[in-house]
Amino acid sequence: MTQDEPDIQDHETVGPVESLAEWFSETVLEPITIGDWIEDGVDWISDNLEGLLDGIEAVIRALVDATEFLLLYPLWLTAFLIAAGVWMRFGHKIGAITTGALLVAFGLGVFSETVQALLWFPPPWVLAVLIVLGGIWRVGWRFGLFAAVALLLIFSMELWPETIRTLSLVVASSIAALIIGLPIGIAMSRNDTVEMLVRPVLDLMQTMPPFVYLIPAAIFFGLGTVPGAIATLIFAMPPAVRLTNLGIRQVSREHVEAGQAFGCTPRQLLFKIQLPLALPSIMAGINQTIMLALSMVVIASMIGAGGLGGTVLTGIQRLQVGVGFEGGLAVVFLAILLDRISQSFGQRRREGNAYGNLLRWFFSGRQKADA
User: Fold this and answer.
1) Which parts of the chain register pLDDT below 50?
2) Which of 195, 175, 177, 176 is nearest to 185 (CA)?
C-alpha cells in the first residue's frame, strides 16, 4: 500500500443509512430485552401466584400418586374397569349385581390371607399378566406373545420399578393433558375465533424444543416428579387438541343436518353425532399424546422425574453403555406396548366382529329351526 492510497479501515463515512440504522438500534432494538421480561414475569408469578402454584402441584401430585397406586395394586383397577364396563354396556341392574359380587370377592380378603395378599401385597407379575391379557384382548395373540417376552426382559434387567414409575408418569400426564386438551379442541371446532387464537399457541408449543419446558417447571415447582409431569402434559397436549378439532370439523354436513332435522340440541348434536363420528381422529390424538408423554418423561429425568429416563441418564453420566442400553430398550418396549394397545381403541376389531357375526349367525339359525 502506497502513502497516497487511503486506509479503508480508518476511513469512516456516516451517511443517512448508517444514521438510520444507529437510531433504529438505539430506540427500537435495545429496549427489547425479552430475557429480562421473562425473568420479571417469572418473579411476578412466584411472588403473586404462590397459592395457585401450590394448588396445581397438589393436584398433579395426587394424580400421579393415584396412578402409581393403581399400577402397584392392579386388581383394584381391574375391578373398577370391569364394574364400569358392565354398568355401561348392560345397564344398572347387571352393573349393580357385578359391583356387589366384586365387593363380596374383595371382602373375602378379611378372611382369606391369599386374597388379602393379592389385594394389598400383589407380586409384580400380576400387572404384567394383566398387560399381556389386555394385549391379547385388544390386539391379538401374537402381540400378547410379544408383550410377554418384552415384560420378561424388563424383569430380567431388574427395571420393573423404574418401568412402573415411568408408566405412572405417562398415564397421569396423559390424563391431565386430555382433561385440558379435549375441551379446547371441542371449543376450537365450534368457534372459528377460538381456533384462530389457539392455533398459534399450539404451533409454538409444538416447535419449542422439549428441554425448554424443563426450565419453568423446575423454577416454579422445584425438582422431582411433579415438575416432570407438568412439563410432560404441556408438551404432549397439542395433538389431542388439534385432532379433536380436526375430527369434529370433518364430520359430514349431511350427518349434522340429519341430527338438526330430528330436533337435536347443540349438546345432543355434539355428544350423539359429532363426537362418535370423530372418535377415530380423537383416538389418534390420544395415541400421539401418550407417545409424546413417554418421550418427554424420559427427558424429564434431568429434573428428577426418575423412572427409565433416570436409568438412561445414569448410563450417560457414568459412560456405562450397558446400563444406558438396558434403559433405552425398556423404553422401546414400553412405547410399543402403549402405542399398539392405545391405537387399538381407535380401530375396528375385525376378529371381534367376526366372532360376533358367527354367534349371531348361530343363534339366528337356531331360532329359524325352532320356528
Assistant:
1) 8, 11, 349-371
2) 195
Q: What is d(CA 199, CA 179) in angstroms, rounded to the nearest whole number?
A: 18
The CA distance from 255 to 260, in Å, is: 9
The Cα-based distances of 230 to 39, 45, 98, 167 in angstroms read 20, 16, 37, 15
Residue position matching grid coordinates 349434522:
256
> Could you tell me the end-to-end alpha-carbon distance of the chain, in angstroms, rounded to an integer?
116
Q: Which three cell numbers stand for residue 319?
A: 459412560
Could you tell me if 297 and 305 are in contact, meaning their C-beta atoms sit under 8 angstroms apart?
Answer: yes
Please write the tens of the pLDDT for every residue from 16-45. 777 777 776 767 666 777 777 788 888 888
Taking a C-beta distance cutoff of 8 angstroms, is the pair 166, 308 a contact?
yes
The DSSP result for 142-200, as a single string, is: HHHHHHHHHHHHHHHTT-HHHHHHHHHHHHHHHHHHHHHHHHHHHHHHH-HHHHHHHHH
Residues 6+ apart with CB under 8 A from 342: 283, 286, 287, 290
Angle between helices 160-190 and 50-72 (to 10 degrees): 120
- CA angle, residues 248, 250, 255, in degrees to nearest 5: 85
CATH T-level topology, domain 159-363: MetI-like fold (1.10.3720)
**Sequence spans of domains, the chain:** 73-122, 124-156, 159-363
Distances (CA, A) of 53 to 169, 171, 242, 293, 354: 19, 22, 27, 22, 52
The alpha-carbon radius of gyration of the chain (Å, integer) is: 28
pLDDT tens sequence across 319-351: 888 888 999 999 999 999 999 988 888 765 444
Taking the CB of residue 344, how many other CB atoms lie within 10 A of it? Answer: 19
Give me the phi and psi of 365, to 5 degrees please. Answer: -65, -40
User: CB burial class (10 A; 0-12, 13-18, 19+) of residue 238?
Assistant: buried
Q: DSSP character for 91?
A: -
Residue 4: the pLDDT is 55
Report how far residue 327's alpha carbon sits from residue 306's, in angstroms, rounded to the nearest whole number.
12
How far from chain centre, in Å, is Cα 258?
34
Phi, psi (rounded to 5 degrees) for 299: -70, -35
